[in-house]
Specification:
Length: about 425
């Protein structure tokens, strides 16, 4: 029995390639309201992770810049410090302490570089050592009041300082200053930031993200706060434990030229069904096709209300908005994945809608020209054309080559 099989080119394409196209790039940004604690911040990271696992979109995390390095200015300060030391050896105390002041001004101005880019803890010792040197210089210049002030600042960085570490002439002043300083004790200090989760450096030491509660001694408190996309925040104040627990807040400013300015301003546009200029600009700067905003409102230490707003700048439309309350301590990751999936359910993410409403209220019907603008259109057409050419060439080759099982010139392959 003979069966004749016609050899035809085989074209393999995903069945839903034309229907779904390529997953759109998506970005996300979080707004916070209420008292944000570390449990809420951990919940936010889980929510961000659920978005990254979404099969519907290609999540694109923001790559925000960090502040620049000014180590060259720190080097200038270190050079001034050496000059001051040399002048001190020559008994030129007034000139030497002036050099110290100049060095301290540079260190304070570029505290970010001194903390993060220069070797730790060597520069921390140099920084606090300035106060000790200035105390010694001021004492020998006859200004005991200034010497006591510098000595107290040194204690703020060297709480467990010992008398024998000081030159003998200054030890009586140390005994008159250190015990009363320590007698003030310590008190709790709560540090919060905008945005929440910024990293806190307390006297050059990394203490982790805000909010932070720390037991601090009396005297000078020096805080450096950093967050990607923001200029570093520096705060210096005097701590008085006799006043009981205290708190301080540091608000960071976005670095110029980053999408953060538009993203932060976009909060006022989330209630609109058409994305405002800040949402459109933020999406453009981030290089994403759809953008998602989460408003996290802390109702209590455990309960938060999440409002998710999904926008597609290509069609100038808010595609979806959902609101749900979660317990940040008990909500499993699967529940967050389901919440994210529900945002995209029944929503067109291909950049066109059958009758997309324009800004002026008119409707734009779907046409072949809009299909041509899809980024997957020409690659698919090219793939189909290439496959047809290869398939046709292979068919002609097989049909025309000589085979002993059939007469020459045949137009079909025959198998027994």
């Amino acid at each position: 029995m003979r069966r004749t099989l016609l050899l035809l080119p085989l074209l393999l394409l995903p069945q839903n390639a034309l229907a779904q196209g390529v997953k759109p790039n998506a970005g996300a940004f979080f707004f916070y309201k209420g008292k944000i604690n570390k449990e809420v911040l951990r919940f936010t990271k889980k929510l961000q992770g659920a978005l990254a696992y979404s099969p519907t979109i290609s999540y694109k995390p923001m790559n925000l810049p960090t502040p620049g390095d000014h180590s060259e200015e720190i080097d200038k300060g270190l050079a001034l410090l050496k000059e001051g030391n040399a002048l001190g050896k020559e008994a030129k105390l007034e000139e030497g302490i002036a050099k110290y002041h100049q060095a301290l001004q540079l260190f304070d101005k570029y505290l970010y570089s001194l903390t993060l880019f220069k070797p730790y803890p060597k520069n921390k010792k140099r920084y606090r050592g300035l106060f000790k040197r200035m105390a010694i210089f001021a004492y020998h210049m006859g200004d005991k009041k200034a010497a006591k002030r510098y000595m107290t600042r040194y204690f703020s960085f060297r709480y467990k300082d010992k008398e024998e570490k000081w030159p003998k002439p200054l030890r009586p002043l140390w005994r008159a200053t250190n015990p009363p300083y320590k007698a003030k004790g310590k008190a709790l200090l709560t540090i919060t930031t905008t945005p929440p989760g910024a990293k806190i450096y307390y006297k050059f030491k990394d203490k982790g993200p805000s909010p932070l509660v720390k037991r601090c001694p009396a005297g000078e408190i020096l805080l450096l706060v950093t967050h990607r996309g923001y200029a570093p925040g520096i705060k210096r104040f005097m701590m008085d434990p006799s006043q009981g627990p205290q708190s301080t807040h540091i608000t960071l400013t976005p670095l110029p030229g980053t999408p953060l300015t538009s993203l932060l301003a976009a909060e006022q546009e989330l209630s609109q069904t058409v994305p405002g200029p800040n949402i459109l600009k933020a999406a453009s700067l981030l290089g994403v096709e759809v953008i998602l905003f989460y408003s996290i409102e802390a109702k209590s230490a455990k309960e938060v209300t999440v409002t998710a707003s999904l926008f597609d700048p290509r069609v100038k439309k808010r595609l979806n908005q959902l609101n749900k309350t979660f317990d940040v301590t008990t909500t499993p990751p699967e529940a967050l994945k389901h919440f994210v999936a529900s945002l995209f359910k029944g929503v067109s993410l291909d950049g066109t809608i059958a009758k997309a409403t324009a800004v002026d209220g008119t409707t734009t019907p779907f046409t072949f020209s809009t299909l041509m603008k899809k980024r997957y259109f020409w690659p698919v057409v090219g793939g189909i054309g290439g496959a047809l050419l290869i398939g046709t060439a292979a068919t002609l080759l097989l049909l025309t080559q000589h085979s002993p099982d059939r007469p020459r010139g045949g137009h079909a392959a025959v198998f027994k």
